[in-house]
Amino acid sequence: MKRRNLALSIIAIALLLLFLIFADSSLDSYQKRILNLCAIYVILGLSMNLINGFTGLFSLGHAGFMAVGAYTTALLTMSPAIKEQTFYLEPIVAPLANLNMPFLPALLMAGILSAFVAFIIGAPVLRLKGDYLAIATLGFSEIIRIIFTNTQSITNGSLGLKSIPPHTNLWWSFGGAALTVIFMVFLIKSSYGKAFKAIREDEIAAESMGIGLFKHKMLSFVTGAFIAGVGGGLLGSLLGAINPNMFRFVLTFNVLLVIVLGGMGSITGTVISAFVVTSGLEYLRFLDETIDLGFIEIPGVAGLRMVVFALLLMMVVVFFRNGLMGTNEFSWDKLISFLKRKFPFKKEVGH
Amino acid sequence: MTLLLKTDGITMKFGGLTAVKDLNLEINQGEIVALIGPNGAGKTTAFNMITGVYKPTEGKIHFSKKDITGLKPHLITKHGMARTFQNIRLFKELSVMDNVLIANHLHLKASYLESILHLPRYRQQKNASVKKSEFLLERLGLSQFKDEKASSLPYGLQRRLEIARALATDPKLLLLDEPAAGMNPKETDDLTHFIKEIRDEFQLTILLIEHHMSVVMGISDRIYVLDHGITIAVGNPQSIQNDQKVIEAYLGVSEDA
């Protein structure tokens, strides 16, 4: 059984690699960008699911962590010459002007800085529960955005950063997504992951079983922020230009959509729904344009696809509260037994 | 006999209401002590003070010669005290096995990173806790349900699982909050034997709140009786049964008396 599963996993990974090689060489840049976005949303979704889905902390500060990550990566990878061009209103502060490093350390720095910010705000905020935590973290992410708008000599204010070196490609984004998935699987399987889930299930019982609430909430929050920072860095480098207004609540909402549709507390669900939601948002772009039905012409309404997605979210919350996967995870055994139930004749052939 | 738990006049006030007043418990190692009293007497409040859920307004709590007054619940559990809840508080969506495994987490020495990366030190400790949890489930007759969701167990087994989970923290003192609630006479009888058995097997000291007098009188070495937050009697089961104040608290005072 174990060997069969291992073989199946190796085949699946090989297929994914083949697909990536194919995609990298023959898809056009628009399709590649969507694939990149999907993978980045896997990373962002997992980081939010760790905090909200697995630990049960209702945090809405994700855009803030992503902003920290995106700006850090951008500022660390842009060359001094480009920085001088970009910061034409007010020159960039001295130590940042000449700081330049490769993409990987820049991404790690983005994660570390974002985790550090989470640590600082976590100390007061994680004492709150439920809705109060949501409001406080939402406030935090708005504060970050406003700080970034006003620190002209560090972030270039509302002009944003342009010509960010486009390091993010399919290998970076899918590599990052794969690493995050593996990390999450290991974390959730570990004793700490179980402790997080215990806090989600019942805080009072968890505390009575010797689980320090504050320490474990902090660990989850900081880890989630680290991953979100890296995801933000990848996103910034993919888009090539960032400004503070990108990191409004809508960004947090998109990630929230991914994890709610996929299932709060399911890694598998987040991965699937990141692909569905991201490509869906692109595919539904026709809703924003003028639709010609032949006999009637519906004028284009910008943002109609977001309305559709909001409706979808509402329907999920009302009718399928557990999302796509609930708290279940994918396993080969489950898939095979599912297929056997669906196609029973296969079993007879085997006999 | 060594003193394990001692409360020095602990008092809990909620605004103007005094839920528990000047409670002086003394529990020796290996004893089974019961805390009884009519509804609203302050028994669960006393439990919550001892386990750190509430910080007593006045008084001190000493547990195995250490002052634990005002410590957080998880630290008190680390000192060797575990509890069950009056209205069962299991990790409902998690498996029976996970419920017990989580109670081993407080003994984990491996760091966060070691645990995530499943390094040798973590794996070794994890294997030990899996073994211990399997033993506990086996001992409490729950091993056939170990992969079931905790919420899918019948009521009586959920109570057992709560005890298994509490035992997994390696307690010296086990606090049971109405372990026989909702059980029929046969189950109550089994529970009485069961509590004695685990006391002997795991070298426990037990403090329990209970309304079933058959359980209380059958297993307690000593009984504390609370009424409106005040300790009205202390003694062995026999003396409590004949105590005039206790009878009055439970049955009310006759007009003619």
Summarize the structure.
The complex is a heterodimer of chains A (351) and B (257). Chain A has one domain: ABC transporter involved in vitamin B12 uptake, BtuC, CATH 1.10.3470.
What would you note in describing this structure?
Chain B: GO terms for molecular function: ATP binding; ATP hydrolysis activity; L-isoleucine transmembrane transporter activity; L-phenylalanine transmembrane transporter activity; L-valine transmembrane transporter activity. Chain B: It comes from Alkaliphilus serpentinus. The complex is a heterodimer of chains A (351) and B (257). With 351 residues, chain A is an all-alpha fold. Chain A has a single domain, classed as ABC transporter involved in vitamin B12 uptake, BtuC, CATH 1.10.3470. In chain A, 72% of the residues lie in helices and 1% in strands. Chain B is α/β, with parallel strands linked by helices and 257 residues long. Chain B has two domains: 167 residues, 3-Layer(aba) Sandwich (Rossmann fold), CATH 3.40.50; 77 residues, no CATH class. In chain B, 37% of the residues lie in helices and 23% in strands. Chain B has a six-stranded mixed beta sheet, with helices on both faces. In chain B, strands 1, 2, 3, 5 and 6 form a five-stranded antiparallel beta sheet that branches. In chain B, a hairpin with a 2-residue loop joins β10 and β11. In chain B, α3 packs parallel to α6 and α7 runs parallel beside α8. Chain B is globular. The model of chain B has no long low-confidence stretch (mean pLDDT 91). Classes of the chains: A mainly alpha (351), B alpha/beta (257). Chains A and B meet through α9, α10 and α11 of A and α2, α3, α4 and α5 of B.
